[in-house]
Amino acid sequence: MKSANFVNPKAEPGGRKLFVGPRLRRLREQQGWNQSQLAARLALSLSYVSQIETNQRPVTAGVLLKLAEVFGGDVAQFSEEQDKRLLGELDAALHDRTLAHEPLPAAQLARIVEQAPELAEAYLALYQRHQRLQDEHAQLIDRFYGEQGADPAGARAWSAAPLPHEEVRDFFNRRNNHLDGLDRLAEALAQDLTLGPNQRAAPLREALLQRCGVTVEVQEGGDAADDEGAGLLRHYDARRRRLLLPAHLTDAQQAFQLATQYALLAAAEAIAAEVREAGFSDEATRALARQGLAHYFAGAVLLPYGPFLAAARGCRYDIELLQQRFQVGFETVCHRLSTLQRAGARGVPFYFVRVDQAGNISKRQSATAFHFARHGGACPLWNVHEAFAQPGRILSQVAEMPDGSRFFGIARTIERHGGGGYRAQRKHFAIGLGCELSHAHELVYADGLALRGAAQAVPSVPIGPGCRVCPRERCVQRAFPPAGKPLLADSDRESLVSYRFNSA
C-alpha cells in the first residue's frame, strides 16, 4: 500500500484544513441541485459555495456540520481518510505484476480518486473478482492436470505469471530434482580435495583462495556491519574478494557455505548455462535460480553422488545412520536423497517437503508423482503436520491420494538457528520424505508392513493435495470447499463434514 506517498497538495502542514470540493460537487449533482440551490440550503453565499467546490477555500467545522445535515449521514463522508484508503487500494491494484500496462503516475491517480471515486471503486471490485477467478482457475487446473501432469494448450495462457520462487521450483521439478552436469562437477571437486566428514571446510577454504583468489574470514557474531547480525550465514564482499562466515557454524555448515560460494565463482559458466536453458522470465528469477543451483552444487559436494548412494543403499536409507556417516543434518540428508536420479544409478525416487508450523510449504521437490497443491495449504491429514505434536520423533504413514496412488512417507521436526544463546532466533520446520508404496520395502522405516503378496493389507490414510483441489466428499478435516464445485446447503442436516458439494 502506497497511500502514504499521496498528499493533498492543497492541505497545509499539520492537516488542519479540509478541502472537500470534488466530494461536495458529486453529492450536489447526485441530488440534482445547482450551486444556487445548495447555497440556499446551507445559508451561504453562492460565491462561497463555488470557492468550496473548486477547493479555493477549506470548510470550517460549522460548514461541515451544515453539509452533514443537508446531505444526511455524518461528517465522516467528507473525511480525507476515505480518499486515502481508496487511493492506496487503487495504487496497489495497478501495481499488480500480472497487469500489462505501466502503473499510473501518483498525481493522475489522485485526480481519479478525487474526481471519479465511483469509477475507482468499480475498478477495484472488478480487480478483486479477477483475482478470485484467477485463483479458482489455477486450482481447477491443478485438480484436473496436477502439478506434474500435462498442461492443456492455452490452459494457463491468461493466468498470472509465476512468482520467482515458483518458477525456480518448477524448473527443478521438471528435471526430477537432478542436475547431472552440476552433480558430476561437485563429485569431482569432492574427490579432488579428498573431502570427508569433519574435514571439509579447510580444503574448501584453500580451494577458494588458490582457485578463486578469495580469502575466508570467520568472525564471532557474524559481520558487525550486516543488519542480520547473528543470523548471517555467508557474506561475500566481491570488491575485496573476501568471504565472511560466522564462527558458530559446524564444519559441515561452513563447508556448505564455502561450496556455495565456490559454485558461484568457479562453476559460474555451468550455472549460467543451466539458467539460459531454463529461459527464466526476469532477472530476479534468474538470480534466485543461480542461488538454488549453487546450493544444489554445495549439497552434492558434501554428499558426493556415488559414495552417498552406496551408503544409502547399504543402510536401507536410514537417515540417522547417514547423518552419523557424513556428519550432516537431517534436512541435508533428506534433501540429497530426493536428488538421486542419475541415469544408470538411480536411488529410490523420493518427494521432499519442508513445512512450517502454520502449514506453509517453504521447500518442495519431487522425483515422484506425489500431488502437491500449488494453492492453499497442504492436507491436514498428512503426517508432516502431526510431526509438530511429537517433536524429534520419526513418524511413518501410508497415504492414499484421491486417484488411488499410495505413498509411504516419514516426517520429523527440525530446528534451525543462527547461533547465539537463549535469545537467539530459531526456526522450526517439519521435514517430509516419501516414495511410492512400491519402493517402500527398500526403506528401513517400512519394516513390519505387509507390502507384498496376498497379505498386502497396509492401512492407509486418505489424504489429498489440499482442500481447494481435493475431491473427497466426506472429509471431516476439510477447511475449504473445493474450487468450482457448487455447495449443497441443507439447514435440516448437520454433521462433522463442514462442506457438502455436488461432486458431479
Task: Explain what this protein looks like in three dimensions.
The protein has helices spanning 21-31, 35-42, 46-53, 61-71, 80-94, 106-115, 117-145, 164-174, 180-192, 201-212, 251-266, 268-278, 283-302, 305-314, 319-326, 330-337, 383-386; strands at 215-219, 235-237, 242-246, 341-342, 345-346, 351-356, 361-366, 395-400, 406-417, 426-436, 461-462. With 504 residues, it is of the alpha+beta class. Among the domains are: 3-123, lambda repressor-like DNA-binding domains (434 Repressor (Amino-terminal Domain), Orthogonal Bundle); 162-302, Arc Repressor Mutant, subunit A (Orthogonal Bundle), CATH 1.10.10. β8 and β9 (406-417) form a beta hairpin. The chain is extended and about 95 Å long. The model is unreliable at 1-15, 147-159 and 222-228 (pLDDT under 50).
Describe, in short, the structure shown:
The chain has 504 residues and is α+β, with helices and mostly antiparallel strands.
Portion of residues in beta strands equals: 5-15%
The count of β-strands is 11
Give the CATH class of the domain at 162-302.
Answer: Mainly Alpha
CATH fold-level name of the domain at 162-302: Arc Repressor Mutant, subunit A
Structural class designation: alpha+beta
Mean pLDDT: 81
Question: Which percent bin holds the helix content?
Answer: 40-55%
Biggest sheet: strands side by side, in what order?
Answer: 7-6-10-9-8-11
**Helix/strand order, N-terminal first:** HHHHHHHHHHEEEHHHHHHEEEEHEEEE
